[in-house]
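Two proteins were folded this term; both appear here.
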Amino acid sequence: MTPRFLWNQFSFALGNPIPAFAAFWHIALIILLAAAIWRLRRSENKKTERRILLFATLTAVAAPVAYCAFLETLSYLARSWYFLALVALLGITLDCLASELSNSMSIRAGRLALAAIALIVLPINAWPKILERQTDINVVAQKITEQAKPSDLIVLAPWQYAISFNRYYHGATPSITLPAIVDLRVHRYDLFREKMLSEHPIDDVMEKIQQTLASGSRVWIVGGIKLPPEGRPPKSWPPAPDGNAGWDNVAYSDAWLEQMSVFVREHSAHGQTVSLPWIGPVNPFEDVQLMVIDGWQ
């Protein structure tokens, strides 16, 4: 992860769904820090006020640096929600600075007016996100329950979909993830790491797909397929951390999805996207497609 990527995710956390809000909070932080530093340079500050200003100023500067260093060390692919703790801390810090700097009645009245406007404007602008469903995996599970047979096979690709899918699906059709993860109660990235170290990480998945299609049954792919661009073979990475992918789990997951997609395109007789009922906007992270394939060739 680069500092630019972390900055973009932090700004997205502040400005979703309207990016201009992120700029507002950045400017507010700069103005309050500048005012606090100017106030600290004045010798007539009260001792208590000086301590609060100094603590809040140092926290506002040190917390983002320390948190980004933590994310760099963690080496996870940071998303906007990773910054919620930092945003909460900075919010308290800004409030402390604003409180100590609001000496005159006019500044206090302006601060109160700004808070009142925010209470009205922010929920209105966030309303589309408030109404947005976090997943449609329950709809996918219901569709499979209605149409799949016990002799069919469900393939969940990528494997992370299985955590929420298993919560809603209670049918008789067996399922397998891509790659095959044996414990799906939580996101077992330690087991995914073992697949990254394997020489043949998805051979068992391909074999089950082949057996199901050859027997005349269907394969339901939760998540859809991802074909490489025309003329390019599917990506293939050596066992981690060799090769350009290193320990990038997304790179390995995408490569395996391409390999499976090419496999089913070349060896299945028919394939189609299953239409799902409209349920409104869904969070892109779990707006899941459903495909069904049959026939072996």
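Next, the second protein.
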Amino acid sequence: MQFDESRDEHMTLLTRLWRACFPAEPFQGVVSERWKEIGFQYKNPLTDLRSCGVMGLEHLLFYAETYSQNFVTKARVQQLKPFEFQYPLCVAGLHISQLLAVDVFKLNEIDRKSTLLN
């Protein structure tokens, strides 16, 4: 399911990710430079969420809430590496989610078949 910022439940997930990563700061909204600190490519995380939508965000959220300190540390360590060796944590997580969904679980085929049946 594509992330839709007009849906409260989607924005709640994004807010929870923010709180897991920046517990001392109020949620700054969809656009903030701080998103890049945890591994999104741009100051608007919705750009990266286009690849696998809500599912990818839920996977990131599970990691961030369950292993909060580890998540934040891994994200910040990536930023210290030379640019050519960086791979932002959130982007990497979203790519892994998409690979699992498409290549392993064949969810794109399920979507395609259900569309054809309707």
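Residues 8-117 form one domain. The chain has a mean pLDDT of 87. These notes refer to the second protein only.
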